[in-house]
Amino acid sequence: MRPIAVVLSLAVCLGSGNETAAPCALGRNLRHGMGDIADEYGWVCCGNSKFAEPSGTMSKHGDLAGVMEADARNGRKTTFYDVSCGLPVFVAPVNRTVAEWLKESRSHGWPSFRPAEVVHQNVVHQRHGEVLSACGTHLGHNIPDRKGDRYCINLLCVAGNPPREAPAVRPADRAAAGLPAAPWFYLASAAFALSAAALWRCYSGRRRRGHSHTV
Fold it and tell me: What tens digit of pLDDT does each residue of 38-96 get?
C-alpha cells in the first residue's frame, strides 16, 4: 500500500468515531509495579478514550507511596512519564504534601493531579475531558471538582521511563556510514509504520470493555 493511501485511509477511519486511535507500545521495566498489569490492561493507554484501569490499582501494585516519600526526603518531586514515549507528563506533589496527594488519589481510586502538577507542553486536553500525552497516549480524564480541574489518570499510562538520549551523529559520519544526510528518512519510515499500525487497529473491529473513571 502506498504511503498516501495509508494516510488517507487512516484519516477516514479515525474520523468515523470517537475512539482515540493512538498506536503505541508500552515500554519495558515499567515503574510503580505496573508491569504486573501491562499485559492485561495495556490497551487502556492505546486506542482507547473511555475506559480505565481498575480502581485502586495504585494501592494494589508496586510502592508508589514509598517512591514519592523517598523523593520528598531527598528534596525531589516525583515525575511521571508517558508509558509509550517517555515524555514527562506530571510532576507531584506541587503546593501540597505527599500525604495530601496520596489521600486525594486514594479516595478517588486513581492518581489525581492538579493543574500545577501537569507538564502542560506535553499534555493535550480534549473538549470532552479526555487527557492525552503529546505522543497520543491516552492518560485519563479531567474531572473537575469544587477545587477546580482534577486530572484522574491511569497509573499504568504514566509508569514509563525517560527516554535515553542517543549521541548525535555528525553529517560527515552519516556520509561515511552510508546513512541519509538527515534524520527525515527515519522519521518518515516511523510515521508510515505507525500509520499502518493505527489503520490495522481501526479496521480490526476489536472492541474491549473496561472500567470507567468516576468522580
Answer: 999 999 999 899 999 999 999 999 899 999 999 999 999 999 999 999 999 999 999 99
- CB count within 10 Å of CB 83 equals 31
**Nearest residue to 43 (alpha-carbon basis) of 23, 58, 29:** 23
pLDDT digits (tens, 9 = 90+) for 111-125: 999 999 999 999 999
Question: Which triple of cell numbers denotes residue 98?
Answer: 505527599
Q: Report how far apart, in Å, the C-alpha atoms of 53 and of each of 73, 185, 190 are.
A: 30, 37, 28
**Rounded Cα–Cα distance for residues 4 and 6 (Å):** 5
Reported pTM: 0.69
Q: Which residues of 103-141 are buried (b: 16+ CB within 10 A; e: fewer)?
A: ebbeebbbbbbbeebbbeebbeeeeebbbbbebbbbbbb
**Helix, strand, coil % (nearest 5) of the chain?**
40, 15, 45
| Runs of H (alpha helix) within the chain | 3-14, 38-41, 57-60, 64-73, 98-108, 171-177, 184-203
Query: Grid coordinates in use for 95?
Result: 503546593
Cα gap 59→199, rounded to integer Å: 36
Biggest distance spanned by C-alpha atoms of the chain = 61
Instruction: List C-alpha distances in Å: 90 to 99, 113, 139, 187, 197.
Output: 17, 8, 11, 26, 28
* Residue-wise pLDDT tens digits, 168-188: 444 443 344 344 444 444 444
Rounded to whole angstroms, the Cα distance separating 112 from 101 reads 7
